[in-house]
Amino acid sequence: MSVKDIIKTATPATANITRGSLLGTEAMSSGEILSLLKIATRMNPRTARPLLRGKRVLLLFYEPSTRTRSSFEIAAKSLGAMTTLVLSSGSSVEKGESLVDTVYTLRAVGADVLVIRNPYAGAPLLAANHLDIPVVNAGDGMHEHPSQALLDAYTIMRHRKTLDGLHLTIVGDIYHSRVARSAIHLFSKFGAKITLCGPSEFLPEVAATLAKGLHLTRSVEDALRGAEAVMVLRVQKERLAGKKLSLQDYIARYQITTERLKLAKRDALLMHPGPIVRGLELTSEVADCPQSAIVEEVRNGVPVRMAILARALGKAK
Amino acid sequence: MDVLLREGRVADIAPPNKLRDSSSGVFDARELIVSPGFIDLHVHLREPGQSYKETIASGTSAAAAGGFTSVCCMPNTSPVVDSPEWVTWLQQRDRGAMVNVFPIAAATLASKGVVLTDFRALQRAGAVAVSDDGKPILNDAIMRETLRLASEINLPVIQHAEDTRATEHCSMNEGPTSFRLGLRGMNAAAEASIVERDILLAQQFTGARLHVAHLSTAESLKEVRRGKRNKVRVTCEVTPHHFTLLDEDVRDYNTNFKMNPPHPGRVSRRNRGRHCYRPRPSRAA
């Protein structure tokens, strides 16, 4: 038995992941992404046909969420689906029920699609390997948040005809960010010029290996210069505790201010996956400025998630 | 070649049909590998207390099937093998061992790293080394005392070299794969820093014998070479899976490849391979 054989026998088959599952942007083709976004343009939350009537959308959230959760729920209901939300707190997860048993249970009560958010990277893949229904990743640990990347792509395309060659800058705690990883995978498929910026505590050199053509810089001014879209990431105060970098240092060196934003292209989009912390990663002025697409991103989350669910259940090409 | 076995030992080796004593039975060994029994210095037989993982019988059967006639088993069982009574228990016939079992006893009580065990008594009961394997002995003073007392009775000290303060919540090697998967990765320094410190401590005691368990990084091997140049009696072992598998093989969260120490990255394995020729790690385990 060669080493390759050993690896093969020890690797579970991923061929049994149900069609329509959305586990991450890494494995999506640019064609798939564009067709999904096209479906989203035809989705109107207020006037959509009930494509998912009779379908049961199960939302399984092990982590807090405002945007993603309500967005998926409204998306599902706008298409006529029945939704149920299971939070880990107040569920049998507190009694020690495993993830696999939990998803088997939800399948048994009639879930047609499972939307899952979990603090462990790989949890949606584990669920998908065990189920015969599509699984949609609503965020798994530090790994991926594909629906966020998709709604960000959707948002950018409403201001720019194509994603090709986009100059995108991502600033903040990239190491811990599933939003950053999903965005990097997605936009790099379109030949985007992606600049990552942050202190070494939040942006290790190895980040450059994630996709082709990534550029790393420690200077926020260099990062912003010429950017067409600036994605700002939340900084968790707790993650700075005990590090050489203090909160004040971070703010001094990386906070997005009106002055700094001027370095980007004139109509550059200012984006943030939320929740924002005014006065930390960005100033209040920047959050509310005309270039800010923060609220628009949230709004766009609904048609994008409608498209994701419709495609998952085979109700849209 | 023909090999003559008498009373369980090799009595003679001669060219075919040239053996002087051919009165006993003949075993046709053509196309087979004939070798002295291998010794595995580092196994986990998981008894007492964890027989759902392995038993002495099952583990030693596997050893025998692979040509290993002696194994040294680690004490991180439930309870930890930290007393002469448990060392004796492991060697009793009732355990059903298929090969020779040489117990390694814990260096500290319950391997908590606080109170040293009675090395002399453990050695008298049959322990061939002490180790808190599964965990490192992090405290400098405790490690120093361990090396000192062990050196007095020529007992090897085996260290699981991992700075657990730096590897909390880490599940694989730090590198492009861990970054892509969104998993916290262990840095090579977490192993090498402990190896370096242990060698510095061992240098202070003549006759101290330090053995680095499952060494997995080029950086650690450099320290071992430096220690040998400084006349420290330091040895190390490398596992087959660390030679053959990489952190990239983890792909898609396959926990079949989850190991501690973790599988290395491509560059580290190549560098370690380069070092492996001069001098070699002392053992494969």
Structural overview:
The complex is a heterodimer of chains A (317) and B (285). Chain A is an alpha/beta fold. Chain A contains 13 helices and nine strands. Chain A is globular, with a radius of gyration of 20 Å. Chain B has a domain at 136-285: Metal-dependent hydrolases (TIM Barrel, Alpha-Beta Barrel). In chain B, helix 4 packs across helix 6 (189-202), helix 6 (189-202) packs parallel to helix 7 (218-229) and helix 7 packs parallel to helix 9. The two termini of chain B are 29 Å apart. The model of chain B is unreliable at 275-280 (pLDDT under 50). The A-B interface holds A 3, 6-7, 10-12, 14, 26, 121-122, 125-126, 140-144, 175, 178, 181, 204, 206-207, 209-210 and B 174-176, 179-183, 244-245, 249, 251-254, 256-257.
SSE layout:
The complex is a heterodimer of chains A (317) and B (285).
Chain A: H1 3-9, H2 30-41, E1 56-61, H3 67-78, E2 82-87, H4 99-108, E3 113-118, H5 123-130, E4 135-140, H6 146-157, E5 167-171, H7 178-188, E6 193-197, E7 214-217, H8 220-224, E8 229-232, H9 237-240, H10 247-254, H11 258-261, E9 269-271, H12 284-288, H13 294-312
Helix pairs in contact in A: 2-6, 2-13, 3-13, 4-5, 6-7, 6-13
Chain B: E1 2-6, E2 9-14, E3 38-43, H1 56-65, E4 68-73, H2 84-91, E5 100-105, H3 119-125, E6 129-131, H4 140-152, E7 157-159, E8 172-173, H5 176-181, E9 185-186, H6 189-202, E10 209-212, H7 218-229, E11 233-238, H8 240-244, H9 266-276, E12 283-284
Parallel strand pairs in B: 3-4, 4-5, 5-6, 6-7, 7-10, 8-9, 10-11, 11-12
Antiparallel strand pairs in B: 1-2
Segments of chain B where pLDDT lies below 50 for 5+ residues? Answer: 275-280
Content of β-strand of chain B: 15-25%
Specify the CATH architecture of one domain in chain B: Alpha-Beta Barrel
The total tally of domains of chain A equals 2
Overall shape of chain B: globular
Q: What global shape of chain A is seen?
A: globular
Q: Which strand order does the major sheet of chain B show?
A: 3-4-5-6-7-10-11-12
Name the CATH superfamily assignment of the largest domain in chain A.
Answer: Aspartate/ornithine carbamoyltransferase
Radius of gyration of chain B: 21 Å
Count of DSSP H/I helices of chain A: 13
Structural class of chain A: alpha/beta
